[in-house]
Design goal:
alpha+beta, 5-stranded mixed beta sheet, 5 helices, about 30% strand
Length: about 170
């Protein structure tokens, strides 16, 4: 606080260091946790049509500036023989987003966690986010979106159309 010219002893700032420490414990509670371990409700199911999870709100913190980035995450997969409790897929994303992060890694880690837990035929994860390090500082471009995608399994083979699956996410 002193470095920015504030009085750390004034009433409104006196407990700020403790509040910030508590906030960081919460925001970074995913450090050291296995995101695929959060997918602990897996069921054998003879279902081979796409499963699509859309518009999952997430919040994370940019590791370069320690400012939030937030947005929507989407996941589509074609099961082999296992499906997961949907909330467990979201919980996995929560584990990953609660670490100092970059969006590209967050997307990749979520795809890998679900792919590891379910061994689906194919999977597409997509994350779209606004980064406050770009919105409120630097280039000052609020509303800008960064979109990242991770593709696994049969969708990496050109004989399958991952674009069609991505279009299902956008509907």
């Amino acid at each position: 606080m002193e470095a920015i010219g504030e009085n750390p002893h004034r009433e409104g700032l006196r407990d700020t260091p403790n509040r910030v420490a508590s906030m960081y414990l919460e925001l970074f509670s995913g450090i050291g946790l296995d995101p695929s371990g959060a997918i602990d409700a897996v069921f054998e199911e003879d279902h081979q049509d796409p499963v699509i999870l859309k518009n999952v709100t997430f919040y994370s913190v940019c590791e370069h500036h320690l400012l939030p980035f937030f947005g929507l995450a989407h996941l589509a997969y074609i099961p082999s023989s296992k499906v997961a409790g949907i909330s467990k897929l979201v919980r996995s994303l929560e584990v990953i987003s609660r670490r100092p992060q970059v969006q590209e890694r967050l997307t990749r880690q979520w795809a890998d966690a679900v792919f590891t837990a379910l061994s689906p035929q194919g999977l597409v994860a997509q994350v779209e986010a606004e980064h406050l390090c770009m919105s409120m500082r630097g280039v000052h471009k609020p509303g800008s979106q960064v979109v990242t995608t991770a593709i696994r399994g049969v969708f990496t083979d050109s004989s399958f159309d991952s674009e069609s699956l991505l279009s299902l996410i956008k509907r």
